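Subject: Sanity check before I submit

Could someone independently write out the structure tokens for this chain? I want to compare against mine line by line before I put it in a report. The sequence has 174 residues.
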Amino acid sequence: MADKEALRALQNRLAQRLQEARSTVRGRAWLAVECGGRGFLFPLQEAGEIFSMSPIQEVSHAQPWFLGVTNLRGQLHGVISLAGFLGVSSPAESRDQAMLVGFNASLDVNATLLVDRLAGLRGEDQLSAELDALPAAAAPSFAGPRWFDAEGRAWQEISLSRLVRHPAFLKIVR
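---
Independent answer below. Compare away.
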């Protein structure tokens, strides 16, 4: 029970910080998440509400990365495994910290991304851009720049607004 209360308190603090960051941050800011041991950054203005795991109803004939649908606040949302969609392995035991990250309402998408773990907020002042970036043709259209934190860990920016328009993301049927 204490674990659930601690998780709920963490979610509330993070939601409050997200709201504060959206209204006060000058410059770029991201929600940092982890999937398959890799770090990803979602622009704050494109990320939506964060949910703890809830029961997922599987959908027949869907891509393996489309896990199914879940009821969040009385609305059905598709659940996409970010690790599965990107083709990075995600250990099953990481589900104890797994969270669902929604899309900003302005993107008009009733879906969530399953991530292994939330890693907090990052600002442009905490990261430095990769100097030797891949040519644009080598990366998918939703992949933004790669950033590095003070410890040298790489963080790949993912544009959620471009992700929801990407043909592979839209093709959930096998």
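---
OP: Matches mine. For the report I'm noting this point. The mean pLDDT is 87.
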